[in-house]
Design goal:
Strand content: 5-15%
CATH superfamily of the largest domain: Butyryl-CoA Dehydrogenase, subunit A, domain 3
Helix content: 40-55%
Structural class: alpha+beta
Number of domains: 3
Low-confidence stretches: 1-9
Distance between the termini: 15 Å
Number of strands: 10
CATH class of the largest domain: Mainly Alpha
Number of helices: 11
Length: 369
């Protein structure tokens, strides 16, 4: 193999006290402020939940600056802590721009001396990388062309753009690409009806808009940001899958049919056992990806490809099983199961499909095509 594969023993994969305390704090806040009924209301156009919930997470808990170094106004945490947050956000299908702003945009700006990074860390502003949400770490990065400092063009299906104050726009240069920061108010941001309205996509149109260069040579930084996003998206997918499994198990313990508890039927036990073993495997893959990203391990690209190859499909399986095993109630609008199925299906093609990550994994492992 071309790439060295470190033994897992090289990395401490056990959660520490800080991670457990962080998990408890995030879970308590989401239990208080992220009611499933309010999340469901977003499909009727009611987005009032988003602003208050994001302020509580970003400012009150200080999560917006989790990945920002202390000397630049953040907490100096790592991908491991960010993975804890994303798993809890996945458990509630929380409609906040943590992944798009506090992970992807923030990681992109770590190599810049722009003061925008400090504003993101404080929660005063949010940002979104203006590329289609399906763009993977090794995919083609859509870029605009600039006429001087004026940008013109359209970028479709951008995640986080609706909540963003600043758009980070890749622009083609002679040497590769640069990142221009554009005020969201200077662009036309058109929300599009999305399968997952808790992470609604938008089309961005720029018509002679002026931007500020925040990264002159950005190609490597963009790929690093997308890789970090893909690796930590796996943690969110694990959170989705855990909610689906735990909620379904709890339901089948009390649901009675034919005079007995449904969970006692052997066929259903087998289905739940299958989901359980897969969820545990997904958790291990996601945790390893976060650990490698946290220390910039040489195997991070491989670990991210493994995690996304597995976790994206597993989350869909768990959500489908949750809907089916809840029976009639699982098909209703009032039950939150549909929120998780929609999140899982959209995550399945976000930041690169499972197939594209498997293809990348084959390259890294020197497997023939």
């Amino acid at each position: 193999m071309t790439n060295r594969v470190n033994p897992v023993a090289d990395l401490d994969l056990l959660p520490g006290e800080i991670e457990e305390d962080l998990r408890a704090s995030v879970r308590d806040l989401l239990a208080d402020r992220c009611d499933p009924a309010a999340v469901t209301a977003m499909y009727d156009g009611d987005r009032t939940l988003v602003e208050g919930l994001w302020k509580a997470l970003a400012v009150e808990l200080g999560l917006a600056g989790l990945l920002v170094p202390e000397e630049r106004g953040g907490h100096g945490a790592s991908a491991r802590e960010a993975a804890v947050v994303l798993e809890e956000l996945g458990r509630t299908a929380a409609p906040v721009p943590f992944l798009t702003s506090s992970v992807i945009a923030t990681t992109l700006l770590l190599g810049s001396d722009s003061g925008l990074l400090g504003e993101l860390a404080s929660g005063a502003r949010t940002a979104a990388l203006a590329v289609p949400w399906s763009t993977g770490p090794d995919g083609n990065i859509a870029t605009l062309t600039a006429d001087g400092d004026r940008l013109t063009g359209t970028i479709t299906s951008v995640a986080g753009a609706i909540e963003a104050d600043v758009l980070l726009v890749p622009v083609a240069t002679a040497s590769g690409s640069a990142i221009h920061a554009v005020a969201a108010t200077d662009a036309t941001v058109t929300p599009v009806v999305s399968l997952d309205m808790t992470r609604q996509l938008a089309d961005i149109t720029l018509d002679g808009v002026s931007g500020t260069v925040v990264l002159a040579d950005a190609q490597a930084a963009v790929r690093r940001a997308l890789r970090t996003g893909a690796g930590l998206l796996a943690a969110e997918q694990v959170g989705v899958a855990r909610w689906c499994l735990e909620t379904t198990v709890a339901y089948l313990k009390v649901r009675r049919q034919f005079g007995r508890v449904v969970g006692g039927f052997q066929a259903l036990k087998h289905r739940l056992a299958d989901v359980y073993t897969r969820v545990e495997s997904a958790a291990a893959a996601a945790q390893y990806a976060a650990a490698t990203l946290a220390v910039d391990d040489p195997d991070a690209a491989l670990a991210v490809a493994v995690a996304q190859s597995y976790c994206s499909d597993l989350a869909v399986l768990a959500a489908e099983e949750a809907v089916q095993l809840h029976g009639g109630i699982g098909m209703t609008w009032e039950h939150p199961a549909h929120l998780y199925l929609k999140r899982a299906k959209t995550d399945q093609i976000a930041l690169g499909t499972a197939g594209s990550h498997r293809a990348r994994l084959a390259e890294l492992a020197d497997l023939p095509g």
